[in-house]
Design goal:
The complex is a heterotetramer of chains A (266), B (358), C (434) and D (318).
Chain A lengths: L5 H6 L2 E12 L2 E12 L3 E5 L6 H8 L7 E6 L2 E3 L4 H7 L1 E3 L12 H8 L8 H6 L3 H20 L14 H14 L4 E5 L7 H18 L2 E5 L3 H7 L2 E6 L2 E6 L1 H6 L1 H8 L4
Parallel strand pairs in A: 3-8, 3-9, 6-7, 7-8
Antiparallel strand pairs in A: 1-2, 1-4, 4-5, 9-10
Helix pairs in contact in A: 4-7, 6-7
Chain C lengths: L1 H24 L2 E8 L6 H22 L6 E8 L4 H11 L12 H7 L2 H5 L3 E2 L17 E2 L5 H14 L7 E7 L2 H4 L2 H11 L2 E7 L8 H10 L3 E5 L3 H12 L7 E3 L6 H4 L10 E4 L8 H11 L16 H24 L6 H10 L1 E2 L1 H6 L9 E2 L12 E5 L4 E3 L8 H17 L11
Parallel strand pairs in C: 1-2, 3-4, 5-6, 5-7, 7-8, 8-9
Antiparallel strand pairs in C: 9-12, 10-11, 12-13
Helix pairs in contact in C: 2-12, 2-13, 3-4, 13-14
Chain D lengths: L1 H7 L1 H8 L1 H32 L6 H17 L4 H23 L8 H23 L17 E6 L2 E6 H23 L1 H11 L1 H6 L4 H26 L6 H4 L3 H8 L4 H22 L8 H15 L14
Antiparallel strand pairs in D: 1-2
The chains are: A alpha/beta (266), B mainly alpha (358), C alpha/beta (434), D mainly alpha (318).
């Protein structure tokens, strides 16, 4: 459903490149020798059966896990080991498989939290909530309100997120990730556990984010229909290995992928 | 009926981001302040001011300090008593070295010393969580208690090992020492507590407070949002210990008049933790409610049997007090983990819709 | 809710205010008793609180009070905690409290500076700030019959009489709070003048039941004598540990807070030979104590539930001695002011003028119960001597004659300490004694 | 220079010159360590089964010992009192499970931890209310525990071994072995280990969590009673014990919160090291370092090995 053409993506500037990544916990190999790239402006999907290493891959990208082997190049800069907040500083933002909102805070505060990196006013002004600190607060409130409008969650602005239904929580989480104005947005199963209507809403938001803000998105998703519709390119993982990489149509036709999903013995 | 927000439209984000967006709340605050600053000094007797209001305010401040750490940042501490002690001993040393500097300035400065010590013992919190942290704060508690005894320099080599508050004046009025009037001491304590509560509220509602709450609610997500755990946790330890330190210094200078190490022992750490839990984790109002509750409960327990003409052993009352506090801690944790502050909120909610049930 | 709390608080304040009226509007003598029946030191606190209140009740029942005025004893629980002690003080002082017996050195230290302001004397009997013995500097502080410093010198004198202290090593094991540290400066000074060496063994409050390493250190240091300034559960633990390392019990001497029945009862036979200082009588063999049985316990008038076995205990009797001094001082105050209902300032005068002579003690039915004390403006410790008692495995026995302290050595030191205490207190009121 | 010698030279000279005394110090460390281990064992049992860090273990020790002494003081024979004290601990376990734990299932650890602080406060008040606050002596002889001591002549000096301490070590060993057998050989023990691994999974295979919790709290109560008897016999039974009981925390940091052997070894490490440090190095700092030494060791340890000696490395997931 994307308006971009294959040619756009092929000529697109490379945003992120992972090279020969291997990650293991004790003896368990979660990821083995995986390489792929993400170009600017695309929606890149990572799919695979359960335990394929998809979430581990996202965790590697945003610095939560440190791969034993391999490198990650983001915005032309190669890095090996970094703390997650540094990934955030570079412009990588994400949502989580199991909603990881700040349960004790309101929707507004959660999305404001996404703008943490953009707020700098020092302790002195914070103490008095005056002058620069107050102006900063209000300026960011304005930006947050835009996101709230965009996601159509105005009525729940002041509600503590712990009290929201699951679908809305997912939406707030997306809002929080967007608030950081990321150059790369990682979505870990944004539609898990949703009903059809909610899925449609969420798909629409993802496409809108991609097209209105031009945000590059990498997403993990189980619903094949959704993935095929949304994604520009797809990486398929199975047992920590990459088994296919390409346009939706190519991946769909790949024998390895079909085997993996149908469960052919390895 | 009087507590309505209907009709109060906010036209700017500034108005909506205000700490008390509702008019009636601002009025209520004004009334409380009026009572505290005018009515109590005028009508309260010495006992009420010295033995109820002053300790209540001081413990409220300490509870705010601990609440910043436990309630807002989710880092548990059993070292509050010792951090209060650092403030007290620091203030004592400062006023010995600089007898001419205004004592209020010194009280506030002593907070910086406990902030530094608090940060030092907060360092392990970067690698450990939950009750593992209890051990490091217990280490702080016991180690600092030992320092308060074994470093005689801290108490000016007094034979008794106690710090005794010298007489100091503020703008020509005796503010500390036995000759200071209860009202003077009360007003100074009140002013410091009000200003520091206001500052705490500002910090909590701003960028830094949000960072603390992010760490509390989901530290991993917070880090992935760009919060440096080091900065967030250490700043919480620093601010928390600062508040506790100032509270400790005020406790000795404006309330007790003299103190030995036992005034900063682990029982105080517990007491303040209880104030935070019963008052409400993550609530400034709760810190006040909790402090009032824990401090006033035994006084009421002592008064009740007497009003009915019963003579109950002082010890029995103390035992019953322990049982009630212990029971209430469990009760609140089970029924209302947000403590008295939530009950307070519910009461306000009821008031808002009164006379209808909802 | 907050409003309710404030109203509640105000109501409570009013209730306690109303009680103020109850307590002193009528003709009574109001004596607050800062007791501790809870906490780790309750073992000592219970008999003390009972002894004090039972003696006063006995005076009420037998004599109709003091000088015809009933005595009201109101207990306030401190748990041996200074902070609670101050709270108790604040809550009771406005009821025309005559005198405070803080029963804790920590609380005494807190109250000493408050006493002149509120005009209520503080009487710390044999504990508290030793320097308050200097009457000129501390008009409002009293510590009859003797101070920690005098006591220490008397103990050293006793040791000296049992083979000399010169060249010996004396171990000092103490509870590491204000109480235990009080005698340290004197110990340092005397060690130089008397020619012995010291080994210190501080026991922190929370370590007091876990003293094995302290006593390992004692074994390492090999002192010839051990002196103990202990309290509460520390005492029995220390004696047990001493027995464990085979320290000779008759070279182990406790001060008068480390020689109670409650301390030795749990130790039993293995504590045989342990010594302790004391200044109040042992046992029930005194007419006044018998009166407590007749008028209080048997008559069911005991406000506290005193165990009959407790009467005659070292600490119970010590509290009786405390009550006797207070009662004598009240009488002296009544006599000199001509008022029946006195106040704190009158009480202060009484505490400086009473004369508890041997004859008077006999009259009170307490012959030989304690050393006679003649109060004076100058000397607030009374110079009373101590005696040494020994545990025979099941009870205490008095084994020495009264030992008087080295007043001529101690007094200048006390004066020096008193001068140091008031040095940084510009408004401190002293008095001149003729 | 003198300071360096004080740290690195003199203490070792002292040890070499007085080997018998060193043995005595080590023995004292061993005995203290055994008691710390017993204390820590109570914590581990409950933590393993319910993830609750039971702050009230210390006061349970006091409470158990007080019940025992209290029943005896009421005129009952020692062994009947022992049995009744056990029953009291059982009733306590049942009540705690009913009134506290059951209501707090699935709450964050911190909430449960604070609930146990509340519980310990309640028990302090309740215990003092019933038994009074003054220290009591343990009925050592009545229980048939040995009270004498043996003297070993060695290296021209003596080492004194209290029979009571030997008995304490033996009883601790028997308790540990008994508990180990109980957990590995019985149905309830296996169920308990299942609960420790995963509450939900254990529930789904038909294990009653409530029952298990009551049982572990009871087991912890038995351990508390044993600890209380031993500790009470060494000094007194008094409420001051509950502060000493906090020493179990550093022990657990060293040994790991879920490991029974860890509790034992951690306890012994703390026992040995604090006695050695206090006796040979404490003088440099003015003595009394025992109060915090274990905590500071634990703190330093935490910085380098947060999971304890025997704990597994924690993998965080998102």
């Amino acid at each position: 459903m994307s308006l971009k053409t294959v040619a756009d993506i092929a000529t697109g500037e490379e945003l992120l490149h992972v090279d020969d990544i291997s990650l293991s916990f004790g003896g368990v190999k979660a990821i083995q020798d995986i390489s792929f790239d993400i170009t600017k402006g695309e929606i890149r999907a990572i799919i695979g059966p359960n335990g394929a290493g998809k979430t581990s891959m996202l965790n590697v990208i945003n610095g939560f896990y440190h791969p034993q082997v391999g490198t990650i190049t983001f915005l032309g800069e190669e890095r090996r080991k970094m703390r997650p907040y540094m990934a955030a500083c570079q412009g990588i933002s994400r949502t989580f498989q199991n909603v990881a909102l700040f349960a004790g805070m309101s929707t507004l505060d959660n999305i404001m939290a996404g703008r943490s990196l953009k707020m700098h006013k020092n302790f002195f002004w914070q103490m008095f909530r005056y002058g620069p600190a107050l102006n900063e607060e209000i300026e960011h409130r304005r930006a947050v309100e835009e996101i709230i409008d965009f996601l159509e969650i105005e009525p729940i602005r002041k509600t503590p997120v712990g009290q929201l239904p699951y679908g809305l929580q997912k939406r707030v989480e997306l809002g929080r990730a967007l608030a950081a104005e990321p150059s790369l947005l990682l979505l870990d199963e944004p539609m898990a556990g949703m009903n059809l209507e909610e899925k449609e809403d969420m798909s629409r938001f993802i496409i809108d984010v991609n097209q209105q803000f031009g945000t590059t998105i990498a997403l993990i998703e189980h619903d094949m229909g959704v993935v095929m519709d949304l994604a520009d390119r797809i990486v398929v993982l199975d047992y920590g290995k990459k088994i296919a990489d390409g346009l939706p149509a190519q991946v769909q036709a790949d024998q390895n992928v079909i085997d993996a999903y149908l469960g052919v013995a390895h | 009926m009087f507590y309505r927000e209907a009709g109060q439209f906010k036209t700017t984000y500034k108005a909506d981001q205000a700490i008390f967006p509702i008019f009636q709340d601002r009025m209520a605050i004004a009334i409380y302040l009026l009572i505290a600053f005018v009515a109590i000094p005028v009508f309260g007797n010495d006992f009420f001011i010295t033995s109820m209001m002053i300790p209540f305010l001081i413990f409220s401040l300490a509870a705010i300090g601990l609440n910043i750490l436990v309630g807002y940042t989710g880092q548990i501490s059993l070292g509050t008593g010792a951090f209060m002690g650092v403030g007290a001993y620091a203030c004592y040393k400062l006023t010995t070295i600089f007898p001419d500097i205004n004592i209020i300035v010194l009280i506030i400065s002593s907070g910086f010393f406990s902030a530094v010590i608090g940060m030092l013992f907060g360092l392990p919190s970067l690698r450990i969580k939950g009750f593992y942290l209890v051990v490091t704060t217990l280490a702080a508690q016991f180690f600092l208690e030992w320092c308060f005894i074994r470093i005689p320099w801290l108490y000016n080599y007094n034979d008794s090992g106690a710090i005794e508050v010298p007489q100091r004046e503020v703008f020509g009025i005796i503010a500390t020492g036995a000759s200071a009037t209860p009202t003077t001491r009360y007003l100074i304590v009140l002013a410091i507590v009000v200003v520091m509560t206001w500052i705490a509220s500002n910090i909590i509602h701003g960028r830094i407070g949000r960072a603390w709450m992010m760490i509390r609610d989901m530290d991993i997500a917070a880090e992935l949002m760009g919060i440096r755990p080091l900065n967030a946790k250490l700043s919480a330890f620093a601010v928390s210990s600062f508040y506790c330190g100032v509270a400790g210094a005020m406790m000795v200078f404006f309330w007790l008049g003299a103190a030995e190490v036992e005034s900063f022992d682990i029982n105080h750490s517990f007491l303040i933790l209880f104030m935070v839990v019963i008052g409400g984790l993550g609530s400034l109002v709760g810190s006040f409610l909790g402090a009032a509750f824990i401090w006033i409960l035994p006084v009421i327990l002592r008064a009740i049997p007497r009003t009915f003409g019963l003579d109950i052993n002082a010890a029995t009352i103390e035992h019953v007090n322990f049982m009630i506090i212990g029971g209430l801690i469990i009760f609140f944790l089970i029924v209302e983990p947000h403590g008295l502050a939530r009950l307070w909120g519910l009461a306000k909610q009821k008031l808002r819709v009164w006379p209808f049930p909802y | 809710m907050f409003k309710k709390l404030i109203f509640g608080a105000v109501a409570v304040a009013m209730v306690s205010g109303a009680q103020v009226n109850n307590a002193y509007a009528e003709d009574t003598l109001y004596l607050p008793s800062l007791s501790y029946r809870t906490g780790p030191y309750a073992g000592g606190g219970v008999p003390i609180a009972n002894g004090f209140s039972d003696y006063m009740t006995m005076l009420n029942e037998r004599d109709g009070g003091i000088g015809g005025v009933k005595v009201v004893v109101e207990e306030c629980e401190t748990g041996y905690n200074s902070q609670k002690g101050v709270e108790c003080y604040e809550s009771t002082k406005s009821k025309n409290a005559l005198v405070y017996n803080p029963m804790s050195t920590g609380i005494t230290l807190q109250l000493v500076p408050k006493a002149p302001v509120d005009q209520i004397p503080v009487f710390s009997m044999g504990y508290g700030l030793s320097a308050t013995a200097v009457g000129e500097k501390f008009p409002w502080g009293f510590n009859y019959p003797t101070t920690y410093w005098s006591q220490l010198s008397a103990i050293l004198k006793y040791i000296d009489s049992k083979g000399g202290v010169k060249g010996k090593k004396i171990g000092y094991i103490y509870l590491d709070v204000g109480y235990g540290r009080e005698p340290l400066p004197l110990l340092e000074k005397l060690s130089k003048s008397m020619g012995f060496s010291i080994a210190r063994f501080p026991v922190a409050g929370k370590e007091m039941q876990n003293q094995s390493s302290h006593w390992l250190n004692v074994r390492k240091e090999k002192p010839d004598w051990m002196i103990m300034w202990g309290w509460g559960a520390m005492n029995s633990t220390a004696i047990k540990e001493a027995a464990k390392i085979r320290f000779p019990m008759d070279h182990f001497i406790g001060n008068w807070w480390a020689g109670a029945d409650a301390d030795l009862a749990p130790v039993g036979k293995i504590g045989k030979g342990y010594l302790a200082a004391n200044f109040s009588g042992i046992g029930t063999d005194f007419p006044a104590i018998k009166d407590i049985f007749t008028h209080v316990l048997d008559a069911g008038k005991s406000t506290q539930t005193t165990d009959r076995d407790q009467v005659g205990d070292v600490l119970y009797n010590r509290a009786v001695a405390n009550a006797v001094i207070v009662a004598e001082a009240i009488m002296a105050a009544q006599k000199s002011t001509g008022k029946k209902v006195i106040n704190g300032a009158d009480m202060r005068l009484g505490l400086e003028t009473f004369n508890l002579s041997a004859d008077r003690l006999k009259e009170l039915g307490l012959e030989g119960f304690m050393a006679p004390i003649k109060a004076s403006c100058k000397d607030h410790e009374g110079g009373g001597g101590i005696f040494v008692q020994q545990w025979n495995g099941s009870a205490w026995e008095k084994i020495s004659e009264p030992i008087s302290p080295e007043t001529d050595v101690i007094r200048p030191l006390l004066e020096e300490a008193a001068a140091k205490y008031i040095a940084d207190k510009p408004d401190w009121k002293t008095q001149t004694c003729s | 220079m003198e300071l360096l010698k004080g740290i690195f030279q003199y203490p070792f000279e002292e040890m070499a010159n007085g080997p018998a005394f060193l043995l005595q110090v080590l023995w004292e460390g061993f005995v203290a360590g055994t008691l710390y281990s017993l204390l820590a064992l109570g914590f581990v049992l409950i933590f393993k089964a319910s993830g609750v860090f039971n702050f009230a273990q210390g006061i349970m020790v006091v409470f158990a010992a007080l019940s025992l002494v209290g029943f005896h003081a009421a005129g009952l024979p020692a062994y009947v009192s022992l049995f009744l004290a056990l029953a009291v601990m059982g009733a306590l376990a049942w009540t705690v499970e009913r009134v506290v734990l059951r209501k707090l299932v699935n709450q964050p650890d911190l909430i449960l931890f604070m609930a146990t602080i509340g519980l310990s406060y309640f028990l302090i008040g309740f215990g003092e209310f019933i038994f009074g606050g003054e220290p009591k002596s343990m009925i050592t002889e009545e229980l048939g525990l040995p009270t004498g001591s043996s003297v070993i002549d060695i290296f021209d000096d003596i080492v004194i071994l209290q029979h009571l301490d030997i008995a304490a070590a033996l009883i601790a060993a028997i308790l540990v072995i008994g508990l180990a057998l109980f957990f590995s050989k019985t149905r309830i023990g296996r169920a308990l280990r299942a609960v420790a691994d995963d509450h939900q999974a254990a529930l789904s295979v038909g294990i009653s969590l409530n029952q298990i919790w009551a049982i572990v709290w009871f087991a912890a109560g038995i351990v508390a009673l044993a600890t209380g008897i031993m500790w009470g016999a060494r000094s007194d039974v008094s409420f001051a014990l509950q502060i000493v009981a906090l020493k179990a925390l550093p022990v657990l940091i060293l040994g790991g919160f879920t490991s029974v052997p860890g509790a034992i070894i951690g306890g012994l490490i703390v026992g040995f090291s604090e006695k050695l440090f206090e006796v040979y190095w404490g003088g440099l700092l003015g003595g009394g370092v025992e109060g915090w030494f274990a905590y500071v060791v634990a703190l330093i340890f935490l910085l380098f090995r947060p999971q304890g000696l025997f704990g597994e490395k924690i993998i965080e997931r998102v």
